[in-house]
């Protein structure tokens, strides 16, 4: 009963996790003039969201910054190419102008008491527009990414004080002084301290590559090739290898889900879907161990077939997904090369062991058949054939 309950509990936890990450979401926002943005990110402060289209060919982005605000207040969104926070921010201010329609001013901020006036920013702005509708102000702009860099510091702000008809000052507490961080227009990731996210990316990459990408193939090699030489030790090695791979793998998978939920506007569909399939298959594989029929049970052959099939599928999908992950996280080339080298080595080892195993098995078969025994040696590699049941009944 407990074995049934724990997967159910995990499933429930996961469902809550998913629904929470979907709850506060920018994806449902729509825009005037049938503007469409391919990516978005809900910002954690001031009920705001940033939507954008990134054009790598010319290093520009179209953005829509939307924030909750009354028609008598102002909102601002800025990139800060040189620093964090307010000083150095290149800002777009949106507010109701003196003639009653929305005005948008561009101001570079170099002091804590800036004068908001319409000027130039130190990157090119191709177009700008502000809009007020139903309690939300929206800034639309097309701009050149400073230095053609997709990871930029952003700052956003809101206030209600004006002086001479232009925004002046905002609250100096709470969300108003925490509304800044970095944004990656390529991956969609935002963070208020870039390093913690990078740390999580690295953790996800390392945990996943080691567990799904290295330990699991080693576990499979153990099962397939040690059987002939080390019976029953192979079984315990195999179980130990796959169980630790599963535990570490689920930890890596969890950090992956967290990373995904933080960039709700950008989803790597195939990487995410393969990841979810992998988790399900591996979970089934681990719990199937408990349902394994006895060695001489007539259904044992079906269980074996299923176990091989799912096992190999997990390994193939894992390797595919790890390469997809390399493309997404884009770590230094050395990491990908190191992984390729490890997988190639494991593949080489498997090939050599395959050959050695066949030689050993055929020799044994020879010997056995000269002994006029009917044992089928080759069968011993593939299934738990007679040879094993003789040697080790329990496994
Ligand atoms: C940048 O490129 C996109 C297409 O990739 C195009 O739609 C857009 O007009 C270009 N912007 C500028 C400012 O040239
Ligand atoms: C900006 O960077 C992208 C990718 O790094 C590159 O493909 C593109 O040519 C660059 N654009 C400009 C205008 O430098
Ligand atoms: C209102 O003022 C803005 C500048 O603040 C100007 O761009 C716009 O054309 C004006 N609209 C009307 C209807 O005068
Ligand atoms: C951009 O403008 C800010 C002030 O608005 C200034 O401090 C900074 O040096 C400028 N950067 C460049 C690269 O011109």
UniProtKB/TrEMBL annotation:
Domain DOMON: 46-159
Cofactor section: heme b
Key word Metal-binding present: yes
Signal sequence extent: 1-23
Principal cellular location given in the protein's record: membrane
Residue span(s) of domain Cytochrome b561: 166-362
Mode of membrane association: Multi-pass membrane protein
GO molecular function, one term: metal ion binding
Location of this chain's protein in the cell: Membrane
Described purpose of this protein according to its UniProt entry: May act as a catecholamine-responsive trans-membrane electron transporter.
Protein name stated in the entry: Cytochrome b561 and DOMON domain-containing protein
